[in-house]
Amino acid sequence: LQHANASAGHVRVAALEAAVAQYTGDLLPDRYEDWILAARERLGQRYVAALEELIDLQSERGEYKPAIAHAQRLLRYDPVRETTYRRLMHLHALAGDAAAALRVYHTCVTALAQELDVAPAEATHNLYLRLLDSGGAPALSTPRPVPADSTALVGRQTEWAALQACWQQSVRGRAHLSVIAGEAGIGKTRLAEELVRWVVHRGVTAVRTRAYAAVGSLAYAPVIEWLRSVLYRPVLGEMAQDHRAELMRLLPELSSQWPELPQPTPMSGAAQRLLLLDALTAAILLPKDPLLLVLDDLQWCDAESLEWLGHLLQVAEDRSLLVVGTLRPEEVAQGHPYTALRYLLQSRGQLTTIELDALTPEETAALAEQVAGKHLDSTQRERLYKSTEGSPLFIVETVREQDSAARAGDDSIAMPRKIQAVIQTRLARLSPPARDLAGIAAIIGRNFAVDLLAASATQLPATLLPALDELWQRRIIREQGTDAYDFSHDRIRDVAYGELSPPRRRFLHRRVAEALEKVNAAAPGDMSGQLAAHYEQAGAPDLAIAWYWQAVEAARRRFAQRDVIALARRGLALLAPLPDSVEWQKLRLSFSIALAGAITATAGILDPEVLDLFTTMQQLAARLGDKVQQYEAQRGLWGCYLNRLWVPRARRQAADNLALAQSIDNPRCLRDAYCNMGLAALEIGSLEKAVGFLEQAMAVVVPPETPPLTVFGFELGLEAPLFCASAEFLLGRADRARWRIESALAYTRTLPDLFTQQMMLVFACQAYQIARDVAALEQAARQSVALARRYDLFSADVELYLEWALVQQTRAVDACLRLRACLERYQQGENYQLTYYLGLTAEAYATVGLHDEALALLDTALARVASSGETFWRAELHRLRGASLLALGAGDAEADLQQALAIARAQGARLLAMRSAIDLANHWQAQGRSADARRLIAEAESEFGGDATLPDLSLPKSGPGALQPRLPHG
User: Fold this and answer.
1) CA–CA separation, 361 vs 155, rounded Å?
2) Which CATH architecture has domain 2-133?
3) Which superfamily does CATH assign the domain made up of 156-231+287-357 to?
4) Mean pLDDT, residues 860-889 taken together
5) Is the pTM for the entire model greater than 0.90?
6) Which pLDDT tens digit goes with each residue over 80-91?
């Protein structure tokens, strides 16, 4: 400021801007000593003076845009400073934006009513009248300031106390979600607003947003609106650069603010979604003070935002954060993503649900009298309650309609029986231009900025501002956010939409779509879903299909898989009746690829639709001659066959895939094809062949610029060393197998792809389990489980490994029962290697002495082996069965042990052969056949010829107990 005082012209402006940029808030806001209060007041006054001078200097020079920004900053500092509202209205008018000036007046009325319970001064109101007159059309009536919905909260004492308790709990450092639940119009938003006012009066920051039922909404839309609020825009620069780069997926405007940020790459894997979740969380938690976030209409919130909300509350568990959501339970059907969030937060103790019921007769009368501003007699009270049944929305709308009728000279209005009738009557009383504007706003389907409304409007510009103001005066719309309007309630929007005839709807949907393209010409991708939906409703399928594909690509960049599913299905539905041209076939293939990948990521590869989609994709790609996409489709078919335990069919498909990959100039396809051939060989116990294919996969060099295969969302082929380690453990090559695991995991840890890291740890767990290296298995499993739980990844398989390790270490029955629960969860989404997991579960039961249960599981596994051909673990299943029969003293245990040994020798599985030989030799020794037992062990050791340092093969060569395995089986 001293530099500014000594300067003039541009230098003075620059110095003032530098000075106000240094002011980030009140001085020491938590301290109340006299000297601090005086210094705080002095600094605040100098800040206000600097902003006012900046506004003067810049407006005098015609620099209206920065002057407007400084006036808005001054309003954020003092939201009830009426002179600033007038100044801002004047600046917008000078800049040629009368609609923005009108919105400033509307905001002024609301702020003064809420904070001071007063109307604007005459000077402000006169400026507003001149603004309306400047549009070239007279006002429809003499406008009067309309106070905001500032009625005192009626009733709800218990619910209000519960909400305050949630806030106090969050202030103590316990992040929480409070959900206000009830039917439409019951007062959920009003209660949430009461909390916002209550905390703001105590100096706490609150940020509001809402979700919409309209088709085409963006994933993370509510979070985006939070981050675009005045709270967050100034502080995003404090984030780490990699987090800001991730945020550019959702906030593309950051690239102009920080051009040095790297452009985000296409989101090809689940791990990149996890990085985005972390970046969003880091951004929301930038404010260090207690924070209130409000999200209206959770029932319409996208699945990705709800998933992120669970992530946020976990990461911010010890932060002073309260999220308040409103919810219509009747809109939450089975499978709604909110249900998963509810269960998750209930298990953590981070959820409180507050149910709202209708008001009592006494509360109904009290609310009506507040809205009407007059006393109601007993007859009026009785009629009102009988008609409205205590619904706050119905009460308010009925009283407002009676007020409108009285002002229109109609004293004969009857009390309508339905809320729709009340709203229809209110809309009918609007002037024709205002009624037309309400219809356009209803077509938009969400909150709307004035520029979009103006671009969509069919009326003359001169009538736009008076019509907009009339909608605001009549409480049809209200201010929303910093620069938009919205209907006062969704029911009003619904009725306004329903009043339009079908031809009128189609016409207006087309107008709104064209306006959206015009208004968002610089970045239409963010609006692609809305554009597609509007063009579809307008009866323009070709344009809708093109925009649906843009929307699918935008959703994939955000890894918003449920959005991908919904959008791709709409695109395919519109394509179905169209001619089978090459252009439409390519789009049908693209939509099918996106849909198959998204369903696999969310519902699992066993979903019946996935198999049909991959079949269709293979046929379309072959017809179009696109070999890479044909490979992706055939790779998907191979995964479907393998997970359905159609092993022979999967082997044939793997061979077909390799032949196709060898004809394509794409090393990713070739590496993946060799890996799949190796896995197919491993599944039937062809161990040496498996190692050969897997080594060929590892030898393929994949340049970084090679386009990724996108169907499954992770890097295919990297798992080859870990499958190879499993085969080499079975072959007795323990040292080589361990080297492969360590090398693969060391490389994986350098990848930013956390999803791939988690999967690689799962594959390492299998190799460690085959080697029975319990300590290494537990460590890898715990790392994998931590990643899976943090990012909500599929974890039943790795949790099964962890519980198996705990059973081996503790012999605890509860760990065994948890393992069985993991197996049941696994079977709900996967079938791959199910016989192997059944064997692990059976072994755990045997370890704790529950041999009958173990035998039942082993019989189930062996029956699946017979039907599927998945034979790589068959020898171990027979060995475990023989061990349990021996423990029970029942059945022909020796036959199972002999069969286990024969199968293992035929497969070349020296490790399994050695284990079977040990168990059989122990059995013979117990029968007094010591010579046979020792001969068998000598043969087995000679055949093994490998590294005998595995945990259960470190046997003494002679002496007592020479034949006792290190890990008993019961």
Assistant:
1) 11
2) Alpha Horseshoe (1.25)
3) P-loop containing nucleotide triphosphate hydrolases (3.40.50.300)
4) 92
5) no
6) 889 999 999 999
